[in-house]
Amino acid sequence: MSTPSPPQRQQEEKQSVSLSKKKNQKRKRTKHDPELERLDSLPWNSSLPNEEEEDDTFSLFIGSGDLDGGFLSLEEIDESDYGLDVPGAKKKISNKNSKLKKQKLEEVTEGSREDAEAEPEPEPAEGMAEEKNVKAKKKKKKSKKKKAKAVQQEDESATVIDSKDDEKEQMLYEDEAAAYAEFYAWNELRLHPLLMKSISRLGFKEPTPIQRTCIPAAAHQGKDVIGAAETGSGKTLAFGLPIFQRLLEEREKAANMLEEKGEEAGKYAPKGVLRALIITPTRELTLQITDHLKEFAKDINVRVVPIVGGISAEKQERLLKTRPEVIVGTPGRLWELMSGGEKHLVELHSLSFFVLDEADRMVEAGHFRELQSIIEMLPMTSGTTEGQSQDTQNCVTVSSLSRKKRQTFVFSATLALSADFRKKLKRGSLKSKQSTDGLNSIEILSERAGMKPNAAIVDLTNASILAKNLEESFIECREEDKDAYLYYILSIHGEGRTIVFCTSIAALRHISSILRILGINVSTLHAQMQQRARLKAIDHFRANEHGILVATDVAARGLDIPGVRTVVHYQLPHSAEVYVHRSGRTARASSDGCSIALISPNDSAKFASLCKSFAKESIKHFPLESSYMPEVMKRLSLACQIDKISRKDSQERANKSWLERSAESLELVVENYDSEEERVKNFKQKKASSNHLKKLQQELNGLLSRPLRPKTFSHRYPTAAGVTHLIQHQFEELAKQNGDDNLVLGENKRRKMVVIGQDCVEPLQALRSAGREVHMDVKERVEKRRNAESLRRKRKEEKKRLRDQRRKQKKQSQGRE
Ligand SMILES: Nc1ncnc2c1ncn2[C@@H]1O[C@H](COP(=O)(O)OP(=O)(O)OP(=O)(O)O)[C@@H](O)[C@H]1O
Predict the structure, then answer these.
(1) Which residues are CB-neighbours of 298 under 8 A, at least 6 positions away?
(2) What is the catalytic activity of this protein (predicted)?
(3) How confident is the model at residue 220 (pLDDT cuts 50, 70, 90)?
(4) How many CA atoms are closer than 13 Å to the CA of 247, on its beta-carbon side?
(5) pLDDT at residue number 296
(6) Can you tell me which atom of ligand 1 is nearest the CA of 412?
């Protein structure tokens, strides 16, 4: 073995130190810089010089042929380039490093040992000079030995420290590896490491079935996709991840090509161009999808922006000025801006993704025309693109043949509800009959949007379309008793978040007013509300663990709020699709939930046919404890009376103020022509009404100050067992109202302490433990209803006949007289 010379050794030592320094730096960077420095330096370049037309013409890089089939496999991506903690790779690096270190250490120690061994033995001394020489030599030898010893000690301690470091590192990597192993299920989807990083940050252990099926087709085969899967099954990421994957891959290829050419990364980089346009039917859904995608975009430096009505024009302008790559929007506002020539939105030649979420809703009246207009603005995807233009930023001419096709994604939970479309989904063919109604219009729109015939069709809905973990149930009651049953559900089973759906805004106002009088704090959401109020209502609902949202069908689709345990259909929706989407606000992702439909005799046939559309033969009766109903009815009757009086008062006040306001604007004086007597009468009436209102309120407050209890229940045994959240809240309110003194037991006050023994189980639990299945025979129900109607008609006719007969007889007798 050759002995390294001292300078060589120093160099090696330096190398070893710099190696460990680098390692530390890298560790620091990984820890402190999640945005990944290197990625920041990568160019985002959509128009780079074409290899063939290098000099003057440029091809549009995005979606250009250069990147065609440019789906990088994971092998091509070096995770260490991103500073990513991909355990397998790190482990290798770490092993390599420790081996290298070990080898170096061995060399150094061996070298110093050899050095010491190679030292010549001192010759015998001759005279003083010789003695001096010997001394000097001895000194030299001693200091050499000392040095060697010090080096050896240093080396030894370095070895100890490094081996400790290695152990720690090893343990760290093993932990990381274990953590990553949790996300192993994503490996087959070959997603970009940066996307994997977001996935692990969000803790999504495995892809959902729709993601597992759609991502390979969309991201790796570049196919268009039509996707149908149950509500809450993760459809947003099923189209979102392929978009990000392609953007990242293209970015990477662009950087590599530039590197090969030795070009400056930012040389041809234009400002961002629009790459993906995602259209959804409601503002709330738009904002939610934006937030969801932004969570992923955080790590990859892609801008996602919402375009919805209700956002101020200035803010919208500001958002568009950032030239986002991904835009999520509602058709109305999008079209308004596009038809107004908004620059970023009309430069659609670079669009690589066109997505219709909740597609079946989008083709309904109200959206169809705007959507059609937007689609007409899209450039053709097949054939030549001659005459089409050119990137405004860098005068880039689109090379006619090299353009990569735009991908179209169409998603919904209820695409498969139409028998016609279901057949097509099953057949896997989309050849349409060219009609313009119903689901065929989705096909027409998709075709016009450039959907290719070889689109991947993914239908993961089961026969019932509804989410697997959803328990459905119903309560049969009279129309006028719906409020009472709703109050019963919310007060007896008021656990977890609940959404109450109505079809009309009038019904929504009625319910929310009654519930508020009954001391239940509800949020409301309907289409006539201002956007800010709508968002506030959702925030309020989201913030309260046991929140109640009363909403119209504007909240039926897409709203993703965790912890919604119950959906109540106060009124049945107009279609089976809406029923699915409403019910789908609960039992999302892997959680469960229940739906309760309040069914009046008038709803019965409709409900039966709904069940038929979901291939349901039986459905559970929601279990009710009838002993609570007398008290529920009493409270409700008081609340209804209070509501009636308050409405009348506020109506009068509104009318009066309107009259006064109008008179004031016309500079008129409103004279009161009422006589003194009338005025006194009015005054007395008002006073009586206000006294009555006060009395009702007092009575209701008295009832509300104690928890709801069954009629037969003894109130002799105070206990805290079974206290629901609502009761707890009532207690707290009561305590606040009466002050601490009330809690001190006194003869009077003890009567105010009430017995609580009601079920505090949430509706799903109650349903599972006691729900009775009822066979839903549609024919039988329709027949029943028909019979009842014909009986009523016959009775009416009989009555009319008798009346006519009597009238005739009367006339005859008058004539005779
Ligand atoms: N792989 C996953 N693992 C766990 N949770 C996920 C996964 N993918 C998505 N989610 C979560 O599941 C929830 C529902 O996702 P998403 O809103 O995309 O459902 P959806 O199918 O679009 O529902 P809807 O049809 O009602 O609009 C979201 O909160 C989302 O964060």
Answers:
(1) 198
(2) ATP + H2O = ADP + phosphate + H(+)
(3) very high
(4) 29
(5) 87
(6) 25
Can you tell me whether residue 286 is helix, strand or coil? helix
* Token pair listed for 712: 């037969």
- Ligand 1 test: best mutation among 186, 204, 215, 236, most atoms within 8 Å of CB? 236
- Mutation test of ligand 1: which of 189, 213, 237 has the most ligand atoms closer than 8 Å to its C-beta? 237
Integer angstrom CA distances of residue 26 from 18, 33, 77, 110, 168? 12, 10, 18, 30, 16
Sequence-distant (≥ 6) Cβ neighbours of residue 607 within 8 angstroms: 474, 572, 597, 599, 776
Residue 102 has pLDDT above 70, yes or no: no
pLDDT per residue as tens digits for the range 353-378: 999 999 888 877 667 788 889 998 88
Whose CA is closest to atom 8 on ligand 1? 234
pLDDT over threshold 70, residue 440: no
Q: Is 229 left (phi over 0), alpha (psi -120 to 50) or beta?
A: beta
What's the whole-model pTM score? 0.67
Residue 780 has pLDDT above 80, yes or no: no
Which whole number is the average pLDDT over 600-604?
Answer: 89
Residues of 552-571 as b/e, b for ≥16 C-beta within 10 angstroms? Answer: bbbbbbbbbbeebbbbbbbb
The full DSSP string for 23-68 is HHHHHHHHHH-TT-HHHHHS---S--B-STT-SS-B---TTBGGGT
AA letter at 210: I
Ligand 1 pocket residues where CB is under 6 Å: 204, 207-208, 211, 231-237, 413, 558, 560, 584, 588-589
Residue 622 phi/psi, 5-degree rounding, is -70, 130
Neighbours of 313 (CB within 10 A): 8
ipTM reported for the complex, 2 dp? 0.98
Say whether 623 sits in a helix, a strand or coil: coil
